Amino acid sequence: MDSAPRVIDLHAHAVLEAGFGVAGRHGPELAVDSDGVSFFRIGEYRMKPMAYRGTVFMDFGMRLERMDKVGIDLQLLSPNPLTFFHGIEKELAVRFCRVHNDAMAEVVARYPGRLLGSAALPMQDPDAAARELERAVEDLGLVAAYVGTDYPFPLDDPCLDDLYRTFVALDVPLFLHPSSTDGAGMPADARLNRFDLGLIVGYAYDESLAVASLVYGGVLERHPHLDICISHGGGALPFLIGRYEGIARFRDWAPQSVKENGFRHEVRKLWFDAHVEGQGALDLLIDAVGRDRLVYGTNFGGWDTPASTSAFDASLTANAEALLRLNGSRREPQSR
Questions:
Q1: How far is the C-alpha of 333 from the C-alpha of 336, rounded, in Å?
Q2: How far apart are the C-alpha atoms of 102 and 88, rounded to whole Å?
Q3: How far lies 44's CA from each of 29, 181, 194, 264, 296, in Å?
Q4: Average pLDDT score over residue span 205-229
Q5: How confident is the prediction for the chain on average, in pLDDT?
Q6: Three-state SS across 257-283?
Q7: Could you give the percent of the chain with pLDDT greater than 90?
Q8: Best exposed site among 38, 194, 265, 331 by fewest CB in 10 Å?
Q9: Other residues' Cβ atoms within 10 Å of the Cβ of residue 79
Q10: Does residue 150 sit in helix, strand or coil?
Q11: In terms of Cα–Cα distance, which of 166, 168, 273, 162 is closest to 210?
């Protein structure tokens, strides 16, 4: 009897002790306040209550036990989005990323066949990010990079083109995930500081902007072999795709690829993790981008981690293998 297909989780953050305090005054710091409440500090931003120690974020034996319970066979570890540090001094960001990537490589080396690692990059300095990506992939054996969505410049800025070419040359994917902080301060919109709206609305906002910047900004046109995966189904993309499509017909800023093929065609050159809430949201996502551009993700250990995997989750394994270039597989660019 054939065995069940393995399940690969591509949305699983880790918190690494080695990185604590490496970004100078920006932290990261895990501490307890005067009332005995644990918190995690990054610059001026505090997530409270938060005690990462003794959880799957830092205890990797515990992580593997929970992976087994949920039904996850292989997991790509990524940096904690709070520690992307894209808004701090570039020298500190470079130092943090080097230390973090060294520690990430050490962790995944202890669990071959169960954990893979992705790199943190100092995106405020694209040249330094390209050098660190080369080191992380060629020297450390990391298989991807996981970065934020908000830098001192947009995702389609030409200053990123050499970095994008480095991803293609190294044949590794780029994962984009929002953060609640730039590493120095609080969210610019104070309304997001209430009711965890930064996680609910703020992330979707940034993911939606990322989709627009990559497609409208011509990144996929300039770099047709670049694989980029966006978290949480691209934010509001499934709901807004008709408006993304419609506006491009009336504006001369649309790149040639969108003018000729339409937004829907071009957006399907991106990848998306299918970590969305509810069947209705998933149906909208599938209708917008198709199943072959989706990978399984859990936000493992977070408030929205699923309790088990499904047949649909397992059906996305071939996509994950292609995106991560596992088993010698690679997804060739498609014309739609």
A1: 10
A2: 20
A3: 11, 9, 16, 40, 33
A4: 95
A5: 91
A6: HHHHHCHHHHHCCCEEECCCCCHHHHH
A7: 67
A8: 194
A9: 29
A10: coil
A11: 273
pLDDT in the model for residue 3: 58
Which residue is associated with the tokens 């293609």?
168
Q: Are strands 294-295 and 115-119 parallel, antiparallel or unpaired?
A: unpaired
- DSSP element (H, E) containing 31: strand 29-32
Pairing of strands 74-79, 174-176: unpaired
Of 153 and 196, the structure prediction assigns the larger pLDDT to: 153
3-class SS of residue 176: strand
Q: Tokens 């895990």, residue?
A: 30
User: How far from each other are the two terminal CA atoms of the chain, in whole angstroms?
Assistant: 36
Rounded to 5 degrees, φ, ψ at 220 are -70, -25
pLDDT tens string 44-95: 888 888 889 999 999 999 999 999 999 999 999 999 999 999 999 999 999 9
Question: Shortest CA distance to 87 belongs to which of 26, 38, 151, 144?
Answer: 151
